[in-house]
Design goal:
Keywords: Cytoplasm, Nucleus. This protein is α+β, with helices and mostly antiparallel strands and 239 residues long. It has helices at 50-66, 73-102, 124-137, 159-171, 214-222, 227-233; strands spanning 6-15, 21-30, 40-44, 111-118, 141-147, 150-158, 175-176, 182-183, 188-195, 206-210. It is built from 6 helices and 10 strands, in the order βββααβαββαββββαα.
Amino acid sequence: SETHGITFRIQITAKELLDTDVLLKLLFHLPVNYPSILPDISVNSDQLTRAQCMDLKDKLLEQAKKHLSEPMVHELILWVQQHLKYIIRQSTAVCSEKTTLSRGASTEDGIWMLFLHLDHMRAKAKYVKTVEKWALDLSLTGRLMFMGKIILILLQGDRSNIKEYLILQKTSKVDVDSSRKKCKEKMISVLCETKIQPQHARFQTFEVKDYSTMDELQKEFEAVGLATLFSEFVPPLLK
């Protein structure tokens, strides 16, 4: 109505951890001033727990804020279909972490960050898929970033999982050599490995992204409070 806006339901399927289809029931209430005002969103699924549905709703609202003042429902639906498996994995990890904390486990390690520079990827499609799988298996969030010839990997997560990722990166045959034979990654630089500070935000998912300019790449770092990390390590890579 003119005073209450529009409400509609959408049923979609998306892939979860084991690549099986999950039926999601999404309800969007678009207020009269939409898209200048965020929609109300409700998420239900018989295949997800209540906590996972609530987590998914929160993530959708976070994404909606990025599209404020522009039509966003279609973008939100695409985002859910692309990221459901990562959200479920992260939600499961958070639940597990809370259970561990309730048992009095030590948390002195906290959340860590790993920043890597790769020289090249000859078998790019396979390499990217492998990195995505490792990040998913280890509950790591962050970015695999391409900007011109620059290839960067920025990861956040439990310190032990960060270390496990680095071992995989250095010891697995993840690429091919000039003869197209499988080979280990030999041209990798660990730019930074450190504990996340209070001023740093957390990536919610792991994503592979291409950037057309250095300014575009810089904004990705600034969005999570890592402007200093960018200025210290990225510009020198252009020299």
